[in-house]
Design goal:
Helices cover 26% and strands 24% of the residues. With 248 residues, it is α/β, with parallel strands linked by helices. It has one domain: Survival protein SurE-like phosphatase/nucleotidase (Stationary-phase Survival Protein Sure Homolog, Chain: A). The chain is globular and about 60 Å long. Bound molecules: manganese (II) ion. The site of manganese (II) ion has 8 residues, from strand 5 and helix 3.
């Protein structure tokens, strides 16, 4: 199995090193990741300047080849798939920070997996919380291994978003938490006294049972199967029924 690994925290993140180490027990691993952090860049692609890649001297274990790219996670997956044929799966992460609920809309980590699916390749995004201390990736290793074993042999799921709590006690299938968020903007000032602003979001309600955010709150690994088709089937059927032709 050929496994392409990317992330949005950048190639020097400990999260991608941990994922590469674990992935080597499932097949041939190659790392193609952004040269600098690209968190919250979503599915952005670089369209107005050229991309390049360089073989990275950083020492991944088990002699994993690694390349850094001056682009986004989506760029890395597209370039990796161009340069290395027959990729079976793209793993994106392990992100330093959860990607549950609304985060899926701007997550660069998930975008790496989505880009894989756009190219006809299975995609799995993996994230874990990061606070004042770095995540204990060694402690998570057995759960990452179990999750990958489950998803790599499962042909029913093609795109999945996985979130690991700091100390998992099991694994649950979940759906995306869709709640209202406050989308708060926090004003500040720079050293010269000029105004600047930080974008932040906080959920307005507690997580609903069965959702990704709920599972992680309950110390379960959350696996959410996703699809790229955003079409609202019921609204489409209703619209077609009421007004099959808008203009002709
Ligand atoms: Mn990130």
């Amino acid at each position: 199995m050929n496994i392409l690994i990317t992330n949005d925290d950048g190639i020097y993140s400990p999260g991608i090193a941990a994922l590469a180490r674990i992935a080597t027990s499932f097949g041939n691993v190659r790392v193609v990741a952004p040269d600098i952090e690209q968190s919250s860049m979503g599915q952005a692609i670089t369209a107005t300047r050229p991309l390049w890649y360089k073989k990275s001297p950083i020492n991944f274990e088990n002699n994993v080849e690694a390349f850094r790219v001056n682009g986004t996670p989506s760029d890395c997956v597209a370039l990796g798939a161009h340069l290395w044929e027959k990729i079976d799966v793209v793993l994106s992460g392990i992100n330093m920070g959860l990607n549950v609920g609304n985060s899926m809309w701007h997550s660069g980590t998930l975008a790496g997996a989505k880009q894989a699916v756009l190219l006809g390749i299975k995609g799995i995004a993996l994230s874990t919380p990061a606070g004042d201390t770095e995540p204990d990736f060694k402690a998570l290793e057995s759960f990452v291994h179990k999750t990958l074993a489950l998803l790599l042999e499962n042909r029913d799921v093609n795109l999945t978003n996985v979130n690991f709590p700091a100390k998992p006690k099991g694994i649950k299938w979940t759906r995306q938490a869709v709640q209202q968020y406050d989308g708060v903007v926090i004003p500040g000032t720079d050293p010269k006294g000029r105004s600047n602003y930080w974008f932040s979001v906080r959920p307005l309600n507690p997580a609903e049972e069965g959702t990704d955010r709920w599972a992680v709150d309950e110390s379960y690994v959350s696996i959410t199967p996703l699809r790229l088709d955003l079409t609202h089937e019921k609204d489409l059927v209703d619209a077609l029924t009421k007004q099959p032709v808008i203009w002709e």
